[in-house]
Amino acid sequence: MLHRHVRRVAILLAGGVALCRADPDVRFRLAAVFRGLGLAWVGEMKSHGPALYILDSNNHRIVVVGDNGRQVNQIGSIGQRKGEFMFPSAFDIAPTGWLGVVDAENHRIQRFRPDGVADAIIPLDTMVDSIAMTRDGLIVLNTPSRHKLVSILDPSGKLLQSFGEPVPETEGYPGRTSRSTHLVVTNRAYVRITPEGDIALAYRFLPLVARYARDGRLLWRCRLAGPHVNELEAMYWKDPGARKPRAVRRTDGIQLPLVLTAFAVLSDNELAVALANGCLVILDGGGRQKKVLLPEPNAEQVLTGIAALGNQLYVSVPTAVYRLEAHAPNNPPPVAPSSGADGRRR
Fold first, then answer.
1. What is the DSSP string of 180-217?
2. Which residues pair with 191 in a beta bridge?
3. 3-state DSSP: the chain helix, strand, coil percent, rounded to 5?
4. Looking at the domain assignment, is residue 324 inside a domain?
5. Do the domain assignments include residue 239?
C-alpha cells in the first residue's frame, strides 16, 4: 500500500526531477510500498506511464505494478520458448511502450509489444549486461567484449553501429596500475537513453559516468568523487579474500567488487547512480555531481534499481521495492505503519 503521509523534504519531482535541496547532508530511509509480489531477485526497475516494471530475475519474469501498489501484469515465465525467460538479466522500455529483455541464459534478446505479447527473438553472440530501447525502435547494448562500449541494432537485430573506446582502470582510479586482463570486465556498464536521445553509461566496476551522442561522439565522462567513493576504491583494490561477499561479482573468471549497482535517467537534467555502499549520487545533465544521499546509519542494503514514478522516487533491493524518503539528518520522517502481504496495516 502507498502511504499518504510522507514527509518530502529533499525530493520534489515536478516537471523535471529536482532532488535534494542544498542541505549540508541528506539521508534517506526506505518505506516499503509493494507487498505480496513474491520477488526473488530484483535485477532492475523501470517506470512507464503509471506503472513500475520490476525485473524479477530468479523467478524468470517481469512484474508490472500500478501506482496503487497492486500487480497488474506479468511478462514471461521460466522456459525457452518465445515469451519465456531463463534468468533475464536486463530490460528496458521505449517511450512507445515496446519492451526489450536480455534473456541471458537463453542467449538472446526478446522484444515485446506494448501489450506484453512477445514479438521477436534476436540471438546474442556476445555477453550483454545492459539494454536500452530508443523511441524509433533501435536497440542499444553495452558490448565491451566487442571492444566497443556501445552497439546499436535495428529492430531485426542487425548491427548498425558500434562506438566508444574501453577505458583502462586508471581512468577510474588515477595513480593505480591498469591490468590489461581486466579491460573487458571493467567496461561493463549500465546503458540508458536520455530524453534528448543521447546515450548515458554508468560503469559497474569503475566510478565513472559518461554521455555519448547518438552518432558516437563522447560528450563528457566524469569520475564520481568524495569519501563514499574513496571507500569503494579501497575495497576494489583489496585482496579478494578480504572483501565483503555481497559486494563481489565474478565475471569472465575475474572476481571484482561492484562499485555502481544501479543507474537511472530521471529527467533531461538529472541522473541518479547507486553506489555499492548504499549511497545515491545525483548528477546534472552535464555530469556535475550535485548531491549524495546517504542511507540511514547501519543500513545494509544494495540498491538494484532506481525509478521515478509520478512525484515519487522508488528504489529496489534484491527482494523488495521501496519509496525513498529523504530528510535532513536531525529531522527524520515519521515512520509510517507497515503493510502486510494482504495490504492491511499492522
1. GGGHHHHT-EEEEE-TTS-EEEEESSSSEEEEE-TTS-
2. 201
3. 10, 45, 45
4. no
5. yes
Q: Rounded distance, CA 287 to CA 290, Å?
A: 9
Domain-located, residue 98 = yes
* Beta bridge pairs of residue 201: 191, 210
3-state secondary structure (DSSP) of residue 344 = coil
Per the CB < 8 A criterion, the answer to whether 205 and 189 are in contact is no
The tens digit of pLDDT for each residue in 162-218 reads: 999 999 999 999 998 888 888 888 999 999 999 999 999 999 999 999 999 999 999
pLDDT tens, position by position, 7-34: 332 333 333 333 333 344 688 888 877 7
Instruction: Report d(CA 343, CA 329) in Å as an integer.
Output: 30
Residue 81 maps to a domain: yes
Helix spans in the chain (H): 169-172, 183-186, 227-236
Structural domains counted in the chain = 1
Comparing C-alpha atoms, which of 193, 201, 90, 216 is closest to residue 136? 193
CA atoms within 13 A on the CB side of 228: 19
Take residue 235 and report the three cell numbers written for it: 575495497
pTM of the predicted model as reported, rounded to 2 decimal places: 0.84
> Which structural domain, as residue segments, surrounds residue 246?
40-167+182-275
CATH number of the structural domain spanning residue 91: 2.120.10.30
CA distances 243 to 76, 126, 209, 257, Å, are 35, 29, 24, 8
